Amino acid sequence: MSSDEPQQPEQPRQEPAPTPTDGSHQAEPESEAQADGKGKRPKRTGWRRLVPTWRMVLGGFIGFILLCVGLFALGYVLVDIPAANSAATAQSNVYLYADGSTIARDGDVNRENVSLTQVPKSVQHAVLAAEDRDFYSESAVDPQALLRAAWSTLTGKGTQGGSTITQQYVKNYYLDQEQTVTRKVKEFFISIKLDREKSKDDILEGYLNTSYFGRNAYGIQAAAQAYYGEDVQDLSTAQGAYLAALVNAPSAYDVTAHPENKSKAVARWNYVLDGMVKEDWLDESDRQNMKFPMPDQAKAPSGLSGQRGYLVQAVKDYITDNKILDEDTLRGGGYRITTTLQKKKQNAFKKAVDDQLMSKLDKNARDIDKNVRAGGAAIDPSNGKVRAMYGGVDYTKQYVNNATRRDYQVGSTFKPFVFTSAVENDSKTQDGRRITPSTIYDGTNKRPVQGWDGGHYAPANEDDKSYGNITVSEATDKSVNAVYAQMAVDVGSDKVKRTAVDLGIPSNTPDLTASPSIALGPSTASVLDMTEAYATLANHGEHGTYTLLDSVTKNGEDVTLPENETRQAVPREAADTTTSILKSVVDGGTGTAAKAAGRPAAGKTGTAEEDKAAWFAGYTPELVTVVSVMGQDPDSGAQTSLYGATGLPRINGGGYPAQIWAQFTQGALSGTPAKDFDLELQDGAEQEPLPTTTESESASESPSESPSDSASATPSDEESPSEEPSSETPPTEEPTDGQPTTEEPGTGGQNGGQDGGTDLNPLPDGQ
User: Fold this and answer.
1) Which residue among the candidates 211, 412, 479, 515 is catalytic per the annotation?
2) 462 is catalytic
């Protein structure tokens, strides 16, 4: 062959096709070329076309892997960790008595978040043993369980468990409870991302705070309270194991609601404990000694009915008014609010009102009985802490808190502030005599006040009675308007107002005006305001703003509370000398019903204009309490008089208010030794006052002919047997030693010039 000719490529040697051993058929050519003589592999025919080659299998597998990787990458990029759902973050605010027992939970969701450090290790391990024993060592997701759950959902076989704690937390906190493939996919990617961003401890803490345990309890803290009445940090291992068992089937495993399922619940409890032993989280010997911890009976939700609503609202107002938290922040929930209120005293207050007043009402027989309201508050004078409060019969029926409202005249309970101001300012009468308990004034009915240039003012005494010459102490006992209106002018009504504010009356109190009428109590301070002011007197003139809070926490962190700073509002001699004359009111004046408390006590009665409210403000060295009975139309909301309520002609401060005060004080201080007041009096205060009537004059007094004569159970706070005036102007001589009259005050009817009713500041009905 010439070298110029192209050389033909050497053909590969063809080997004969092997003969099949089974004799079924000839083997196919190795290639289509061989089949057609042109080097091509013959086409596959028949069913052989459906059998994949190894190349196809390998290519398909690689393609599937690449697709999965691509989908995973796409999903990881597209699925972000969302904001928490509103249901998972919603919490209730928990309001507690000073001893830690629950007053109420305020919120739609019964949840109180706690930090993981507050959950005992044994309780943490119990939950892990029940739900995910490999939580701290495993990845965020369990793909096998996830695929199994997704397949069950797709095929309609129902929901499937097996998710990790991380996945369950993602479902509870970020997603919803809907069982769909889409939610499962989101759960998968969010769990992976979350596991990279948060520690295992953080995830477990979130899980414990979002899991549902039954009894409307979300989170381990709410569950501890719902089933055992304990805070989570006080749970035993056995109790924690039962709560962990509940997560699997909260309703079914509640053995008090479903006693028929107790065997299943106990079996689940044993499963949890056995798991703890297996994981070396619990000693076998301790496990063997454990008995099943029966939970408490389920309780009705601590709503806002009865007194609870009044207490919660008062505390909320206190928090926002003092700028501890704003309304929106407080409404967000999650706060644990421990109040100064004491459960024993709170219960005693309600019982006293029920026994002494509410039990006397007959709304079917007397329409006026529908108008009767009551309010009260008690403060420890040594620290300003509110210990009890009565807001009304039921917050869900009468939502206005009668202890904090500021729309009823305080009446003669204001008079002690006038005398305190007189002592504080070393005041003198118009003719230059120093004002002390034994200073003599003219108690003539409608006597014009002297020394005031603001116009004519001549207030009436209760029942238009005249008392003639009378000491300040006795004028306080009998609440003589003419004496105290004159005293307000002698002191200076502007100084009286300043003293009242210093004691604790808010400066913006309606009708707290500098005029002679200020003495008769036309101002409308609240029961709580008056309690604070009287607490200053009881605390020897040292004033500290009342407080309703012991502590506020959220997630275990303390919220800063304002310091309760105290100051000497009035000199001790002024406060203590006022206390000395208020002791006389209880011993032999209009407040004798308060003696039923069985303790040394001081106090003052008061009646609003037209008997729309009756007051008693009293105190022992340990406790200051103010009670008011009010009239209000339940339909219109207008203030009404109390004439005829409970079947009596009238209700005065020395009646039901003083009786409520006595029973409450006796119950609230039971077990506490009684002690007397430690008083430092102004110079001359111990001088005995002159008697204002002779024995023969007193014996010749005719009894009052007022409609209240038959109402011996409710003595009037402003009345005394009528006397003829001895002069039209205050006496000029200094008092000499003598003994005041000690006759009991009479009962009186109505007149046109009662406590707080003045010609200078007429108040329309309902104000």
Assistant:
1) 412
2) no
